[in-house]
Amino acid sequence: MAINSFLAEASAYANGESVGSGVDDFDESALRPATGSMDLDRIRRAVREILLAVGEDPDREGLRETPDRVARMYAEVFQGLHQDPRFHLKKLFTQKYDEMVLIRDIRFVSFCEHHLLPVVGRAHVAYIPNGRVVGLSKIPRVLDVLSKRPQMQERLTEELAELLMRELDAKGVAVVIEGTHSCMTIRGVNKSDSSFVTSAMRGTFKDKLATRTEVMSLISGSRG
Ligand SMILES: [Zn+2]
Prior knowledge:
It is built from eight helices and seven strands. It is α+β, with helices and mostly antiparallel strands. The protein folds into two domains: 169 residues, 2-Layer Sandwich (GTP Cyclohydrolase I, domain 2), CATH 3.30.1130; 38 residues, GTP Cyclohydrolase I, Chain A, domain 1 (Orthogonal Bundle), CATH 1.10.286.
């Protein structure tokens, strides 16, 4: 995607109604770990059932280990359901720095909740501290917890922005996520590798056009 269309799309998103429920109506319960447990045996049985349902023979040699492999893979890719993303934001450092902190190109893999297929992408996260900063390795870890759940990219973007805004007590947070959705790229006639861009702006990034423009141009600077 060209830089200009990327910028236009992302800032249209930031200005629009589609993203940006305010802090008040954010459902924080979505961030808590799941109450149910990871039942590998149940996944194995379900995968065997799917194989039977599509007309396969789950007992043939090539498929014999598949239910177990898929169960272990699901346990891994959905482990974020059983983790609390706030855990990584507990340790903050007092710091006078009050300019923008930006981390670009954080790779992630998530699974779309509509098809349980991978979404592969990059996140760009900026915040303006309010006297406290977090270790830079923590933000990718928070993203990792949130993305290792059945997700929608829009919600992932909002959850990350909201979480950082609250836990860091930041003056502003900007999150831009670009994702390529396998459910789009492997099916139908539109087998393209087009990416889907979502953004969530909070605080200063939402209120000040100049700050938002600055972060968007810094992010697009990574695209050479
Ligand atoms: Zn999907």
